[in-house]
Design goal:
Elements: H1 3-20, H2 28-44, E1 57-64, E2 66-70, E3 74-77, E4 80-83, E5 87-95, E6 99-103, E7 110-120, E8 127-131, E9 135-139, E10 144-148, E11 162-166, E12 170-174, E13 177-182, E14 186-190, E15 193-196, E16 200-205, E17 210-212, E18 215-218, E19 222-227, E20 232-234, E21 244-247, E22 251-256, E23 261-263, E24 266-269, E25 273-278, E26 295-297, E27 300-303, E28 306-311, E29 316-318, E30 321-324, E31 328-333, E32 338-340, E33 343-346, E34 350-355, E35 360-362, E36 364-367, E37 371-376, E38 381-383, E39 396-399, E40 403-408, E41 414-416, E42 419-422, E43 426-430, E44 440-442, E45 446-448, E46 452-457, E47 474-483, E48 489-493, E49 498-502, E50 508-514, E51 523-528, E52 531-532, E53 535-537, E54 540-542, E55 546-547, E56 550-556, E57 561-565
Parallel strand pairs: 1-5, 4-6, 5-7, 6-8, 7-9, 7-10, 8-11, 9-12, 10-13, 11-14, 12-15, 13-16, 14-17, 15-18, 16-19, 17-20, 18-21, 19-22, 20-23, 21-24, 22-25, 23-26, 24-27, 25-28, 26-29, 27-30, 28-31, 29-32, 30-33, 31-34, 32-35, 33-36, 34-37, 35-38, 36-39, 37-40, 38-41, 39-42, 40-43, 41-44, ...
Antiparallel strand pairs: 1-2, 3-4, 46-50, 47-50, 48-49, 48-51, 51-56, 52-55, 53-54
Helix pairs in contact: 1-2
Length: 566
C-alpha cells in the first residue's frame, strides 16, 4: 500500500473525528495534533484536483463501438476507450458494448469528465479505473451519465465486480447526474479509497451499492441507492486504520437487503439527511447469520444529522460505541433501536424510537441532553454487560439531562443489570402491561441527585424506587386497588401548589416520583382522576390547572425514600 494512500486515509479519518468534537472536548494537545493532520490533508487532497483549465481538456466522442479522440493519451479500439496518460479527458457519447479504461503509470492525476456518457458492457465493468496515482471523475453540469454492466462477467482478471470499478484512489465530483446499474454485483466499488465531493448519483445493484474498501468519504450530493447487499460500505478487514465511512453532508435515500450503511471500523456522520430502509424494514425479520442494520460501524458510530431508519435488524449498531452529538432520529426496528456492546453516549438531539425490541442497549449508557421517546416491546433503556442476570454486572445507566419518555409494553422501561445514576433531566417511565415486569429495575444502586423521575407500575412484585443513598428524596407509592389506564395522578403540597400531574399510559397500582420539591417534613395530598388544562408531553402535564379529581390521602416525606400505601 502506497505511503500516499496511508497518509490520505488516516488524515481523512482525523478530519471527521475533529469535526465531531466540540471546542470544550478538545485539549490543547489533541487540538494541535489533529489540526496538523488536517493541514497535511489539505496538502494531500489538493483544491486543484477539483479545478482545471478547459483549454487543457482532451475531447473524446464515443459512437457505438468506436469514437474520436482529440489529443494524445487515449485511444479507442474494439469498443474500448483506453486512457494511458495523465491529463483531463472530456468524454461524451455512447458505447453499446464497450468500456472506458484508465491505466497509466504516470504520477500526475487523471481527470475523467463524463459529459453525457452512456456505456454498457456485456463482459465486464463499463468504467474500469485500473491503474493511476489518482483519478477524479467529474459529472459535467446538466448531463446525464449512465453505466450498465451485465449479469455475468467474462472478464474478471483484475477482480472486477462493479459497473464503476476502481483499483486506485478515486474522487467523484460535479453537479451532473450519474446512474449506475450493477447487474453482476456492486454498483460503484473501489478496492482503494473513494471520495465523493458532490453529484446526483443513483445506484441499483444486485449486491453493494457504493463501496470504498479502504474508506468511503462523502462531502455532499444527492444519493438514491437500491442495493441487494449493503447500501454504503467500507470493508477493509485486514488493516484497522481503514474500513471507515465519513459523511459531511448530502441527501440519501438508501434501500438495502443488508445494512444501510456499514463500516468495518468507524462511521462518522457530521451532517446530511438520511432515509434508510434495511432488510425490508421493521415488519420483517432476518436470519441470525445475516445483518440488515440501518447504520453499523463495528468500532464506532458517531452521528449528527437527520435520520429516518426502518430496519429489520438493529437501527444503529456498534460492537463498541455509538455517540450522538446532535440531530433528529426516527427509528423503527425489528430488533434494538440503538445497540452498542460497550457504550452509548447521547450528547444532544431528538431521538424517537417508535418500534423496537429494546430501545437502547449497551453496558454503559450516558444521556446528557436532548429529547427522547422510546416505544419497545421489551426494555426501553437497558444497561447490560450482555448476559441476563439478577447480579450486578457492572453496567451503568447515567442520565444527566434531557426529556426522556419510556414506554415498554412487556419489559422494564428503565433497566440496568448494574447501577443507575440520575443527576438531572426528566424521566417518564410508563410501566409494562403486567407483573413481574416493572418500570424500574436495577441490580446495583440507583442514586438520584436531581431532575424529575416518574414511573407507573402494574404490580407490586419487585417494585423498586431509587436507593436510600440518593441525595434527592423520592416517593414510593402503592394503591390498594389498581387504577385504569390514563387515570390522572396528581400531587399538591400543603400550600395547594401542584407538584405533578401524570397520565400513565397503562393501568397502574404503583407510582415512583422524585423531584427537588419533595422536602422532608412537608405534607402532600394525592388525587386521582380529574382533568388538566396543561400541556401534555409524554404523559406529564406542564402548566394549566388540575381539577375534578378525588383525593386519596396524604403523606409526609420522612426519609430519602418514603413508602406510602393508600
Amino acid at each position: 500500500m502506497s505511503k500516499i494512500k496511508v497518509l490520505l486515509t488516516t488524515l481523512l479519518l482525523a478530519q471527521f473525528i475533529f469535526s465531531c468534537k466540540k471546542d470544550s472536548d478538545i485539549t490543547p494537545d489533541d487540538s494541535s495534533d489533529t489540526q496538523d493532520e488536517v493541514n497535511a490533508l489539505e496538502n494531500m487532497e489538493l483544491a486543484s484536483d477539483y479545478s482545471w483549465n478547459a483549454a487543457d481538456e482532451k475531447v473524446i466522442t464515443l459512437n457505438g463501438t468506436s469514437g474520436t479522440v482529440n489529443g494524445t493519451g487515449a485511444s479507442i479500439s474494439n469498443g474500448i476507450l483506453k486512457i494511458s496518460s495523465a491529463g483531463t479527458y472530456k468524454i461524451s457519447g455512447t458505447l453499446t458494448n464497450g468500456q472506458i479504461v484508465v491505466s497509466t503509470d504516470d504520477k500526475n492525476l487523471v481527470r475523467v469528465i463524463l459529459n453525457g456518457v452512456n456505456v454498457t458492457s456485456a463482459k465486464s465493468s463499463p468504467l474500469f479505473l485500473d491503474n493511476a496515482e489518482k483519478v477524479i471523475v467529474v459529472l459535467a453540469e446538466g448531463t446525464n451519465n449512465v453505466l450498465t454492466d451485465a449479469s455475468t462477467y467474462s472478464d474478471v482478471s483484475e477482480g472486477q465486480n462493479a459497473a464503476f470499478y476502481s483499483q486506485t484512489y478515486t474522487a467523484i465530483m460535479g453537479t451532473g447526474n450519474l446512474t449506475v446499474t450493477g447487474k453482476f454485483a456492486d454498483g460503484i466499488a473501489s478496492k482503494d479509497g473513494l471520495v465523493i465531493k458532490n453529484g446526483n448519483i443513483t445506484v441499483n445493484a444486485v449486491d453493494d451499492g457504493i463501496r470504498g474498501k479502504d474508506f468511503l468519504v462523502i462531502r455532499g450530493g444527492n444519493f438514491n441507492v437500491n442495493a441487494g447487499g449493503d447500501g454504503l460500505k467500507s470493508d477493509n478487514e485486514t488493516d484497522t486504520e481503514f474500513g471507515y465511512i465519513g459523511i459531511e453532508d448530502g441527501s440519501f435515500k438508501i434501500t438495502s437487503g443488508g445494512d444501510g450503511i456499514s463500516a468495518q471500523t468507524n462511521v462518522n456522520i457530521t451532517g446530511g439527511n438520511f432515509n434508510i430502509t434495511s432488510g425490508g424494514g421493521s415488519s420483517k425479520t432476518v436470519a441470525a447469520t445475516l445483518s440488515a442494520k440501518g447504520i453499523k460501524g463495528l468500532t464506532s458510530v458517531a452521528l449528527n444529522g437527520s435520520f429516518t431508519i426502518n430496519s429489520a435488524d438493529d437501527g444503529i449498531h456498534s460492537n463498541t460505541k455509538v455517540s450522538f452529538f446532535d440531530g433528529v432520529y426516527e427509528v423503527s426496528s425489528a430488533d434494538d433501536g440503538i445497540h452498542a456492546d460497550n457504550e452509548v453516549v447521547i450528547k444532544k438531539g431528538t431521538i424517537n424510537i417508535t418500534k423496537a425490541y429494546e430501545g437502547v442497549e449497551a453496558k454503559f449508557i450516558t444521556i446528557d441532553d436532548g429529547n427522547m421517546s422510546i416505544v419497545s416491546s421489551n426494555d426501553c433503556l437497558n444497561a447490560t454487560a450482555g448476559n441476563r442476570t439478577e447480579q450486578n454486572d457492572g453496567a451503568i445507566l447515567t442520565i444527566n439531562g434531557g426529556y426522556i419518555v419510556l414506554n415498554g409494553s412487556a419489559g422494564d422501561p428503565l433497566d440496568s443489570n448494574g447501577s443507575m445514576v440520575q443527576t438531572g433531566g426528566t424521566v417518564i417511565a410508563h410501566g409494562p402491561n403486567s407483573s413481574p415486569e416493572v418500570p424500574i429495575d436495577y441490580n446495583g444502586t440507583f442514586n438520584i441527585s436531581g431532575g424529575i423521575l416518574l414511573a407507573s407500575a402494574p404490580g407490586t412484585q419487585m417494585f423498586q424506587a431509587p436507593s436510600t443513598s440518593s441525595k434527592q428524596n423520592s416517593l414510593k407509592l402503592t394503591f390498594k386497588s389498581q387504577n385504569a389506564a390514563e387515570t390522572l395522578f396528581h400531587i399538591k403540597d400543603d400550600k395547594g401548589n401542584s407538584l405533578v400531574t401524570f397520565k400513565p399510559a397503562r393501568k397502574y397500582i404503583g407510582i415512583v416520583f422524585s423531584a427537588a420539591e419533595l422536602v422532608k417534613g412537608t405534607t402532600y395530598t394525592i388525587s386521582t382522576g380529574g382533568t388538566s388544562t396543561g400541556t401534555l408531553n409524554g404523559g406529564l402535564y406542564s402548566g394549566g390547572v388540575y381539577s375534578g379529581g378525588a383525593e386519596k390521602g396524604t403523606f409526609t416525606i420522612t426519609s430519602t425514600v418514603t413508602s406510602v400505601s393508600i
